[in-house]
User: Which sequence fits this backbone?
């Protein structure tokens, strides 16, 4: 975006300095439609088993109008961390639009049907990856990893793949959403929503 002019009107979360009372309405404007086939990358931050923050990049499987879904393997470190402390934050960045969304909340596992539908919607590469991407394979050399991949794809051909046994889905139920927008002709801006005890949302504009 170097050299581009991004005006405040282009990136202000809701325009004209106004605010929406419902953060999910604003999130729906920023995030792709559930059936769009677009799966943005997001940084998932959890509380590590050693007490330190842990972060990695995952795919946003879907936004269901309230919760953000993602999927992984039950043997992964993030699954163990979420079992111990079911809270997380995700950060989604749109550098080309000078936008960032940070969602913090409580994490629950999704139903088996939701997890299966998410697996079916993934590309063939990601479906195969879910089967093969384990600690054992990671310890092998590049040639052996490619050979294992080729053997798996050849043995299954064009058959429809079932989710692997360890496939699991999670959803973040937000308690806080921070919509950040930047501009090259004005200061950056942060719109912060925090869930109140009565189920409503407190909203404040903060410095970017």
Assistant:
């Amino acid at each position: 975006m170097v050299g581009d002019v991004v005006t405040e009107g282009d990136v202000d979360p809701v325009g004209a300095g106004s605010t929406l009372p419902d953060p999910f309405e604003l999130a729906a404007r920023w995030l792709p439609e559930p059936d769009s086939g677009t799966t943005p990358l997001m940084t998932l931050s959890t509380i590590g088993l050693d007490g330190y923050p842990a972060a990695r990049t995952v795919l946003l499987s879907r936004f269901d109008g309230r919760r953000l879904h993602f999927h992984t393997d039950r043997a992964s470190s993030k699954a163990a961390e979420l079992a111990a402390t079911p809270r997380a934050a995700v950060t989604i960045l749109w550098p080309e639009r000078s936008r960032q969304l940070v969602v913090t909340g409580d994490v629950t596992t999704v139903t088996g049907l939701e997890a299966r539908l998410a697996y079916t919607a993934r590309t063939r590469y990601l479906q195969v990856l879910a089967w093969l991407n384990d600690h054992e394979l990671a310890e092998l050399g590049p040639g052996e990893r490619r050979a294992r991949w080729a053997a798996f794809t050849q043995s299954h051909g064009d058959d429809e793949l079932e989710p692997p046994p360890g496939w699991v889905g999670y959803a973040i139920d937000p308690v806080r959403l921070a919509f950040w927008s930047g501009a090259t002709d004005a200061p950056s801006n942060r719109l912060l929503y925090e869930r109140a005890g009565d189920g409503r949302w407190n909203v404040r504009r903060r410095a970017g």
In short: The first strand starts at residue 41 and ends at 47. The helical segments are 8-11, 23-30, 77-84, 112-121, 124-132, 135-138, 142-156. Residues 8-123+163-207 form a domain with the Pnp Oxidase; Chain A fold (CATH 2.30.110.10). The chain is about 30% helix and 35% strand.
